Amino acid sequence: MKSGDEDEASDGLSDEDVESVAERSAGSAKVVHEVIRLQGDEELGRPFASLLFSGLAAGVAISTSMLAQAFLAVRLPDALWAPLVSSFGYASGFVIVIMGNLQLFTESTITAVLPIATHPTGRNLARLLRLWLIVFVANMAGTLLVAALCANAVIVEADQLGALVKLSRHALDHGFVDTLFLGMPAGFLVAAIAWILPNARGGEFWVVTSITYIIAIGGFSHVVVGSGEAWLAWLTGGMSLGQATGGHILPSLIGNIVGGTGLFAVVAHGQVRGEIATGGGDG
């Protein structure tokens, strides 16, 4: 039965109008939390092969960000405004991966974490670590494959390879601590995409593009895209394997986890914790 306030709010509206209002209302934080939790629970239960191949495809697809950014840079003049344009290319890989529902490690820092935040059991923790390990390794393999193809000029021209090398070495200028801190905003922003999408209602492309554009122009460190840059720098002699993995990929990974899980997921869960039932089951 409706309350008096609800009856009053509906006065003068037909049933069709009331239904239209309901359809256009954004989901509450509790609803969004449940949508993402269910999505995360489904991801945690996926078979090994499904996670592996989806993660590999995501690693290959996300490399489009690096490629598109370099391809735009090649065709732009050496001007202060040029990075503002070429940075739009950075969003392309995320559009493919996120809207294509491929397994990207940084997305799972919120989607796969909410089930364990809601039902903190040993089984859910084991499922989370299994997912993270499979997806991260698969993402790294995908970006390494594309970097190797680029380094050997299989899929790029000489001028494009030059732009890719310049982009990768510029992105890897920071030390361990700086890279870690730059990874935190990137992790937070990618987690924010997952939180916003349930209410995007046809605007998913613009949500993904605008937020990942911020990552690009801010110079933040995203571990998966950044791994492609690190692999390329290693394969073209710009740094050692140890520098690529320990000096860039590792701190980016830590920063992304802190930003996505330690900041966003904890805050997102905390705001609805008192409103949701936490009893029973692993989600």
Describe the structure.
73% of the residues lie in helices and 0% in strands. With 283 residues, the chain is mainly alpha-helical.
- The total of helices stands at 14
Rounded to an integer, what's the Rg over CA atoms?
Answer: 21 Å
H/E topology pattern? HHHHHHHHHHHHHH
Number of strands: 0
Instruction: Round the mean pLDDT to the nearest integer and report it.
Output: 87
**Main β-sheet, in a few words?**
none
Relative strand content: under 5%
- Contiguous runs where pLDDT drops below 50 for at least 5 residues: 1-10, 278-283
Binned, the helix content reads over 70%
Indicate the overall shape.
globular
What structural class do the secondary elements suggest? mainly alpha
What gap, in angstroms, lies between the N and C termini? 30 Å
Briefly say what this structure is:
This protein has 283 residues and is mostly helical. The protein is built from 14 helices and no strands.
